[in-house]
Design goal:
- By secondary structure, the protein is of the alpha/beta class.
- The chain has four domains: 2-153, DNA polymerase beta, N-terminal domain-like (DNA polymerase, domain 1, Orthogonal Bundle); 156-244, Beta Polymerase, domain 2, CATH 3.30.460.10; 266-322, Beta Polymerase, domain 3; 332-572, Metal-dependent hydrolases (TIM Barrel, Alpha-Beta Barrel), CATH 3.20.20.140.
- Helix content is 45%, strand content 14%.
- It has 24 helices and 17 strands.
- A seven-stranded parallel sheet has the order 11-12-13-14-15-16-17.
- α1 runs antiparallel to α2.
- It binds 2'-deoxyguanosine-5'-triphosphate, calcium ion (2 copies) and zinc ion.
- One calcium ion (CA) is lined by residues 185-186, 195-196, 198.
């Protein structure tokens, strides 16, 4: 983190100096320093401690003193002095492609800019007054740069990125020149949000293969292309780095570009201790290549288990793999049913019968229809009459389908009200096959209130699953603050399961919370929260999140066969 902070300051310093029209060599010195710091594997604090800062390429006396100052005081006076009088927002804008510090300085002199909105306005004005050096072509170019920059500022949900990446990859694989193509980076690690896509290819003619990739209809804009790398923007504004690598290096490159950076750094430190050198080209002992064609060689050379991409975050997976104790992670095919789905009874788009048919196609043994309760008015939560109708309809459907799978569970996603009471009376809940309880309101409550609300719900013997326990929406609503240890303890006591919700907006519990729950012996349920037949498929995102949290099938109730699940549910109701 510290390295990245300092690299960023140097990068901004370079921009500020350029903005002020300073000497090109000074500017380049900062840019070089930023690049070289990002390449470091060791922490700058420890390098500073050993007085070795000046050994870093591109770091002279001046820069090493600044790093030292930042390590000690978390600021750099020289930087602050240079920034004086320049709005911070303006420095951010200097990284817009097609704009750059100098052009921005020109605009700023004339119009005074503090923000992106200012910039957009002043481009209109510049066009209107025909400002010198700002022809329509240049202005259009800057506008395109702004669009790109805005979309690159935000990370994309995995549920948006993965289908686009799969589509791109299938087109790439159709190119005859291409022998292998895979996605690496955060998408391969199945992070909940993705910055950019990293694609690797192998081809006998890499430069030509890249030329053909940038001509695919999926590619909306080419930001750069060389012999070994192309950077493009595809639909959805996603940036993609495509790298062409040699067949003998493919495994090494896949390992390297999958990351995470922290995982790779730890791995390479271990390798060094064994006289091995790992990089994106291969594994080497001295000058001799000893591996790198396939990814598993990289781990095998270190006498460790192959680490699944989802847990390559340097959070204990390397130690576990060395000891041969990696968990056997949950897989999509372990799931035997879905315990969180909506129908047209509440806010779903598909009927109960359609949902059940689709579940049958997925090979499920069971599916629960968990429509909302009355408080969820916008979601057409079911009043008691409608609930009665739903029970009746499912009864009919069961008869009609006879013994055909899946078993249909009459369920609800009942609201946990302000004080932890539930939105249906206990005697109604007792008639249902399964109860998911969730918070959908009063998000502003204090940490204590939220905690107590969840504890009260968990104390209700009718509750089988707590749905999306933190109620966060990625990128738009923060997780509810709670004492999660107490929630875990309450779930362990009641035997209820906590959900990992598969909706790409939720993915709640997140990886680390799910991991903590499993470690405390709490059961989990992966739910799709589908509001249509197509969305039943999003349960896979819940599985990805579970894998990132080291979750094994044994912790997940919807991996159980029907006999075990139905006995568990019946037992909770007795
Ligand atoms: P993202 O794109 O922000 O969602 O996250 P990543 O993990 O895909 O990061 P990205 O695209 O910057 O780089 C892809 C992988 O390449 C990263 O996970 C690890 C590797 N990598 C990139 N830069 C470095 C570096 O400076 N040092 C090391 N050790 N690995 C790096
Ligand atoms: Ca990436
Ligand atoms: Ca990248
Ligand atoms: Zn819900």
């Amino acid at each position: 983190m510290l390295n990245e902070e300092i690299a960023r300051i140097f990068e901004r310093m370079a921009r500020v100096l350029a903005f002020k029209g300073q000497d090109r060599f000074r500017i380049m010195a900062y840019e070089r320093a930023a690049v070289s710091i990002r390449d470091l594997e060791e922490d700058l604090a420890s390098i500073a401690e050993h007085g070795k800062l000046e050994d870093i390429p591109g770091i002279g006396k001046d820069l090493s003193e600044m790093i030292d100052e930042y390590v000690r005081t978390r600021k750099i006076k020289r930087y602050e002095r240079e920034c004086k009088g320049i709005p911070a927002g303006l420095v951010d804008l200097m990284s817009i492609p097609g704009l750059g510090p100098k052009t921005l300085a020109q605009l700023h002199q004339k119009f005074h800019i503090r923000s992106l909105t200012d910039l957009e306005h002043c481009l209109e004005k510049a066009a209107a007054v025909k400002l010198k050096g700002f022809g329509q072509k240049k202005i259009d170019n800057i506008k395109r740069g702004i669009e790109l920059w805005v979309s690159s500022q935000k990370r994309m949900l995995i549920g948006v990125a993965l289908p686009l990446a799969d589509n791109l990859l299938s087109q790439v694989r159709k190119i005859k020149l291409i022998e292998h193509a895979d996605v690496a980076g955060s998408l391969r690690r199945r992070r909940e949000t993705i910055g950019d896509l990293d694609v690797l290819i192998v081809s006998k003619n890499g430069p030509r293969a890249l030329q053909q990739i940038v001509k695919l209809p999926e590619v909306k804009q080419v930001l750069g292309i060389g012999d070994t790398k192309a950077t493009v923007i595809i639909e959805g504004g996603i940036q993609v780095d495509v790298r062409s690598v040699a067949r003998e290096s493919y495994g090494a490159a896949l390992q390297y570009f999958t990351g995470s950076k922290q995982h790779n750094i730890h791995l390479r430190t271990l390798a060094q201790k064994r006289g091995l050198k790992l990089n994106e080209y291969g594994a080497f002992r001295g000058q001799k290549r000893v591996g790198g064609k396939d990814e598993d060689e990289m781990y095998a050379l270190l006498d460790m288990q192959d680490v699944p991409p989802e847990i390559r975050e340097d959070k204990g997976e390397i130690e576990a793999a060395m000891a041969g104790r990696l968990p056997k992670l949950l897989e999509v095919r372990d799931l035997r049913g879905d315990l969180h789905a909506h129908s047209t009874y509440s806010d779903g788009k598909s009927t109960i019968e359609e949902m059940v048919e689709h579940a049958a196609e997925l090979g499920y043994e069971y599916i629960a229809l968990t429509d909302h309760s009355p408080s969820q008015r916008v979601a057409h939560g079911l009043d008691l009459d409608r609930l009665e109708q739903k029970i009746e309809e499912i009864g009919q459907l069961r008869k009609k389908r006879k013994d055909r799978a899946p078993h249909i569970l009459i369920g609800t996603e009942v609201d946990i009200l302000a004080d932890g009471k539930l939105d249906y009376p206990d005697k109604v809940l007792a008639r249902l096959d399964i109860v998911v309880a969730s918070i959908h309101s009063l998000f502003h409550q204090s940490k204590d209130e939220i905690t107590n609300r969840l504890l009260a719900a968990l104390a209700n013997p009718h509750v089988d699953i707590v749905g999306h326990p933190t109620s966060r929406l990625i990128g738009s609503r923060e997780p509810l603050e709670m004492n999660f240890e107490r929630v875990i303890a309450a779930a362990a006591k009641s035997g209820a399961a906590l959900e990992i919700n598969g909706s790409m907006y939720r993915l709640d519990l997140n990886d680390s919370m799910a991991k903590a729950a499993q470690e405390a012996g709490v059961l989990l349920a992966i739910g799709s929260d589908a509001h249509s037949t197509a969305q039943l498929d999003q349960i896979r995102y819940g599985v990805f999140q579970a894998r990132r949290g080291w979750i094994e099938a044994r912790s997940v109730i919807n991996t159980w066969p029907w006999t075990k699940l139905s006995r568990w549910l019946a037992h909770r109701r007795s």
